[in-house]
Write a structure and sequence with these properties.
- The protein is α+β, with helices and mostly antiparallel strands.
- It is built from three helices and six strands, in the order ααββαββββ.
- It has one domain: Roll (Nuclear Transport Factor 2, Chain: A), CATH 3.10.450.50.
- A hairpin with a 5-residue loop joins strand 3 and strand 4.
- The longest helix is centred in the N-terminal third of the chain and has 19 residues.
- The relative contact order is 0.21.
């Protein structure tokens, strides 16, 4: 039996859940530097644009297609630095957000220090006085244990919405 076919322990599942909940709290509290510490140096944070397509078209998005996010660590650091300048028009006043993470599944991989994690995320976002947006996404993560700590190495987010009505995207799903 390969590592992939083995069930994740309840201890590991709990550890991964707590990791994802802590990540959501950092987002909601605008603790973006703390969030960066939860990522590996080789992070790939990817949210491809969702195209409406017929069922018979089985083409999956690739990193070369249009994406809302297709970022490495350098890009994510630049995004956060921009927010910290105080001159980011879409963040003054600050966005208020609430992340809900559910349906967490942990799969072992052939590498004992890496885990494939599936989850759903709902992000409620309030901007200014009267703008509200809710985004729902299906996430596939690669979480890696580095020096005993869990870190996010890859994230792919597929939004349920085909048409994105937000004026800006300054939240991480």
């Amino acid at each position: 039996m390969t590592q992939k076919n083995k069930a994740a322990s309840l201890e590991l599942i709990n550890e991964v859940q707590q990791f994802l909940y802590r990540e959501a709290r950092h987002h909601d509290n605008e603790e973006f530097r703390e969030w960066l510490d939860m990522l590996t140096e080789d992070i790939h944070y990817w949210m491809p644009y969702r195209y409406q397509r017929y069922r018979k078209n089985e083409k999956e998005p690739s990193i070369y297609d249009t994406a809302y996010y297709n970022d490495d660590m350098e890009c994510l650091v630049k995004r956060i630095m921009r927010t910290e300048t105080g001159t980011c028009w879409s963040e003054d006043p600050a966005t208020r957000s609430a992340h809900v993470i559910t349906n967490i599944e942990v799969e072992l991989t052939d590498n004992p220090d890496e885990f494939t994690v599936y989850s759903l995320t709902t992000v409620h976002r309030n901007i200014n006085e009267d703008e509200e947006h809710t985004m729902i996404g299906h996430r596939t993560d690669l979480i890696r244990r580095v020096n005993g700590e869990l870190k996010l190495a890859k994230r792919k987010i597929i939004l349920d919405q085909n048409i994105f009505k937000n004026k800006s995207l300054n939240v991480y799903l």
